[in-house]
Fold this sequence. Notes:
The protein is mainly alpha-helical. It is 59% helix and 4% strand. The protein has helices at 17-39, 47-69, 71-74, 91-109, 115-136, 167-187, 196-215, 223-248; strands at residues 7-10, 13-16, 155-156, 163-164. It has a two-stranded antiparallel sheet with strand order 1-2. Residues 252-258 have low confidence and may be disordered.
Amino acid sequence: MSGVPTSFHIGPLLFHLYGFGLAIAAYVTYLYIERRLRRRAIATAPLARWAGVIVIVSLVGARAANVATNWGYYSGHPGRWLAFWQGGISSFGGIGFALPVALYLHHRWWPETSLARFADAVVPALVAGWALGRVLGPQFMVQGGGHLTHQWFGLHYVGQVGKRVPVPLIQGAEDATLWLVLLWLERRHVVRRAGVLTAIAMIAWGIERTVDERLLLGQQSHSGSIGVQLAGLVLSLAGVVLWVHQHRRRTPTGDADPDVDAAPARSG
């Protein structure tokens, strides 16, 4: 039986659905971040430059991490080192490369906005974009499924034998749920300190990524898979540290946090 399609033709041109889908998700995420920044009266003028740099750095890091953890294969196929549109990018590789760059650019281009407040505006949009990206990206890549299954929800993927757990779709649903939870916390004013919303997202997403890698992908002996599980745990731990730090932080007067928006939070 044929698998999930991975490419399509328009005349003589071949388009890989994996890269095409990620491009759509990235653009939608950019628009959503811009909307959230404007609603919080945070400058959007530097956003296009910031997003462009982050996308490039993320792709380089994601691909480099994948090549490094699969060096036994890529050492003999140097022509495929840059073929990220065929699949083979590491989420945490992208995060690891992009995070320090994002922090530096925030300090340079948004010096008037605290990092915690900026992160709380951006992170929910990144989670939503990640959810869309899982559905439009890895779902259409070669070997995009998880371990073998005989259940009704199993799908056939190109490059894999038998029906597979549709991990990208499952992760897309998980990330969409996390996004809705973050929006609910904002609307209900459950989160009172800037940075805590970001911490919650870090904790939840790190645990989710670790559990999915462990239970759904069935590659526990693979060095890259072990690395993803460890990175997920580290991200969650960092979220816990951030949460504790923000709750212990003293404010000038009373209980008000100067980094929290004075106006009621609006959806999205």
